[in-house]
Write a structure and sequence with these properties.
heterodimer, A: alpha/beta, D-Maltodextrin-Binding Protein, domain 2, six-stranded mixed sheet, five-stranded mixed sheet, 13 strands, B: MetI-like fold, 18 helices
């Protein structure tokens, strides 16, 4: 069944999307702070949601031409395989098995996540390596628990895991002082910190002990559509590198002499045409959601209550690993 | 009696006859009034005294902090999470500002703001149709019921979904109380007639009808609702040709209706079995056919007996609507939980506030149904029940 539906859906997604007039985008049904959540008006917003809007802007020059399908972790890949959605932007970790066995393909990494630690400031630790002998709250049955054991063993440290079935239980236990430290994905640590009674008494430690590259995915077998989603993200990263922002994109389009900027904004070459889009596809993306850095800061960074530092997600030229192939 | 009533005793007679009744003396102060009541009900035995004192202490221990949290220390207004954070060193209660900010979503989900009047109109029509139907004194019951079962669903469909000149609002945008009520009302309205037919089918002498009913009931009673919904959302798309999208809400509605019909059928079958055989025979002796005897003799009695069971099913169906969350539809509880992920409202007291509010919404509806069913039981009581 999976095979036939994938075969059936391999028809040009771009044509389907243009025909129906919107991009159907799968997002996190449970919501994830900063990545996908409804605002007070009920509109979806977040870092993953911006990917959906960016693709809509690239195709239609209109970021509102997107419809969201909230998906649970179990539903997400089926929904993509069956053609119910065109694009999955649901904080999914890019792994080899998912990339090869599910009939889907990841187009990039919009957020480099990884498992981290949070500890009470009163412990006086500044590194996870000083956590020897500490009790650590962790959710059971997740890779988080395994990573934790591996990392402490590899570093020859003692620790005392306090395991909980549910995330909320682990949060509450940490807040009530059952454990000295808490571990989960780094992006999660920041959002949990907001729910603690006294967030200022806790500190997120610098060590990241696992790789969780989160990115958008599309169906296998439609290279054109995969390229559009891939380059929508690359356009955002390139824009940040070139200093093109939501505010100055129109101005640069009129005045910039930088050939790289001109290629990005569709003044030079026909890069849009090569993926079936209008020449100003990338300019539309930036106008809609801003460049990568702007989207990051607005949703999860300093412009949001989460205040996540750029870290790995900073540009390669600034000490991070966000790197986009050039448009040329 | 006039002699007796004559004023004063006869001075020549030694016999004294009192001319008026002695007024009854008031009962002793210890058995009337609040004191008497509490002696009878609260302090009648050492064990009762202990239980009373324990309960009072328990309430004194639990209620004031609860009221502090819910009302006195609660945050009632605010723009974002900052308002709901505890002041330096202080305490903060519930974050009702969160409920206020998300109230539109709790009622309508993500239904477009400028189209929400359509939902309001459906709600007004629903109440206007239901209230006269629920009050026994109001006439035109039959016409009203026919309207509610034919015209109202059509009107509600076009108003809520769109068509006939109204812009279409996809069901993916519906949410909150709207989804809860659409699923619950559809399930309730569809499950009762379906359940009656299935119950009759299961007791039928026609083998095929009986077999089909038994298989249907046992299948749907044998699988959990969560499985039904999960199959409908995850498996169904794989069986359908690509591009054919079967509306998620419709899938949930069908699943919930069939599921609750199976339970309803068994409840009603209990009522049918409670009717003495003499009633069936009497109906036959009157020359009534099968459908006539069911409609006029058996079902009115059977349904009356099982009102508590039927309402029980309705209430559990109402609460089960929260399970639509697993297929990505957001009922009251779902939309509140989803909004916990809004970083602008991420505060320690927000989840508790949200859950309490959701519980309150469910309680109001379920308690209402429960009270109405008790009222109907009393009204339809014709003296068969044992008191």
């Amino acid at each position: 069944m999976i095979v036939t539906s994938v075969a059936g859906a391999s028809a040009a997604t771009l044509d389907d999307v243009k025909a129906k007039g919107f991009v159907q985008c799968g997002v996190n049904a449970a919501g994830l702070q900063g990545f996908a959540s409804p605002d007070d008006k009920g509109e979806w917003s977040g870092f993953d949601v911006d990917i959906c809007r960016a693709v809509a802007a690239a195709v239609f020059a209109d970021p509102t031409k997107v419809k969201f399908t909230p998906l649970t972790a179990k539903e997400r890949f089926t929904a993509l395989q069956s053609g119910e959605i065109d694009l999955l932007a649901r904080n999914s970790t890019w792994t080899m098995s998912r990339d090869t066995q599910l009939g889907i393909v990841f187009t990039g990494v919009n957020y480099y996540d990884g498992q981290g630690f949070m500890a009470k400031k009163s412990l006086g630790v500044s590194s996870a390596k000083e956590l020897s002998g500490a009790s650590i709250c962790v959710q059971s049955g997740t890779t988080t628990e395994l990573n934790l054991a591996d990392w402490f063993r590899a570093n020859n440290l003692q620790f005392n895991p306090v395991v909980f079935e549910k995330q909320e239980e682990a949060d509450a236990a940490y807040d009530s002082g059952r454990c000295d430290a808490y571990t989960t994905d780094a992006s999660g640590l920041y959002s949990i910190r907001l729910k603690l009674a006294n967030p200022d008494e806790h500190v997120v430690l610098p060590e990241i002990i696992s790789k969780e590259p989160l990115g958008p995915a599309v169906r296998q077998g439609d290279d054109q559509w995969a390229l559009i989603v891939k380059w929508a993200l690359f356009a955002m990263v390139n824009a940040e590198e070139l200093g093109v922002t939501q505010a100055n994109v129109d101005e640069l389009k009129a005045s910039s002499a930088n050939p790289e900027v001109k290629r990005l904004l569709g003044l030079d070459g026909d890069f849009g045409k090569s993926i079936g889009l209008a020449p100003e596809w990338a300019a539309n993306v930036i106008k809609a959601v801003g460049n990568y850095g702007e989207s990051f800061e607005r949703n999860v960074g300093q412009g949001s209550p989460l205040k996540i530092a750029r870290g790995l997600n900073d540009l390669w030229s600034k000490g991070g690993i966000q790197y986009a192939p050039p448009i040329r | 009696m006039t002699d007796v009533a004559s004023p004063g005793p006869d001075p020549r007679s030694a016999i004294y006859v009192r001319g008026t009744f002695v007024p009854p003396a008031p009962p002793p102060g210890s058995i009337v009034g609040p004191l008497g009541w509490s002696r009878r009900h609260l302090f009648s035995s050492p064990a009762n005294i202990a239980v009373t004192i324990f309960t009072i202490l328990l309430l004194a221990w639990a209620v004031p902090p609860m009221l502090d949290w819910l009302i006195f220390n609660a945050v009632w207004t605010g723009e974002n999470r900052e308002a709901c954070l505890a002041p330096e060193g202080g305490k903060v209660g519930a974050c009702w500002a969160f409920i206020q900010a998300k109230f539109g979503q709790i009622l309508y989900g993500r239904y477009p703001l400028d189209q929400r009047w359509r939902v309001d109109l459906v709600a007004v029509l629903f109440v206007a149709g239901l209230v006269p139907l629920a009050i026994p004194r109001v006439p035109f019951k039959r016409q009203n019921a026919v309207l509610m079962l034919t015209a109202f669903p059509v009107a509600a469909y076009f108003l809520l979904y769109g068509g006939l000149g109204l812009p279409v609002v996809e069901t993916a945008l519906w949410g909150g109380l709207l989804v809860t009520l659409v699923v619950a009302v559809t399930g309730i309205v569809a499950s009762l007639p379906l359940g009656i037919l299935l119950a009759l089918g299961r007791r039928s002498k026609l083998p095929i009808v009986k077999l089909v009913s038994v298989v249907f009931i046992e299948f749907w009673r044998g699988v959990p609702l969560i499985t039904v919904l999960f199959m409908a959302s995850v498996m169904l798309p794989l069986f359908l040709p690509s591009g054919v999208n079967f509306d998620k809400l419709l899938r949930a509605l069908i699943g919930v209706a069939l599921f609750s019909a199976a339970y309803m059928a068994e409840t009603i079958r209990g009522g049918l079995q409670a009717i003495p055989k003499g009633q069936y025979e009497a109906a036959a002796a009157m020359g009534l056919g099968y459908w006539q005897s069911m409609r006029l003799i058996i079902l009115p009695q059977a349904l009356k007996i099982v009102i508590p069971g039927i309402v029980n099913s309705f209430i559990s169906l109402f609460k089960d609507t929260s399970l639509v969350l697993i297929i990505g539809l957001f009922d009251v509880l779902g939309i509140i939980q989803l909004n916990f992920s809004d970083a602008n409202w991420s505060a320690p007291n927000v989840p508790a506030t949200g859950f309490i509010f959701a519980a309150l919404v469910f309680w109001i509806f379920c308690f209402g149904m429960s009270r109405y069913s008790q009222y109907m039981e009393r009204r339809l009581d014709t003296g068969h029940s044992r008191h």
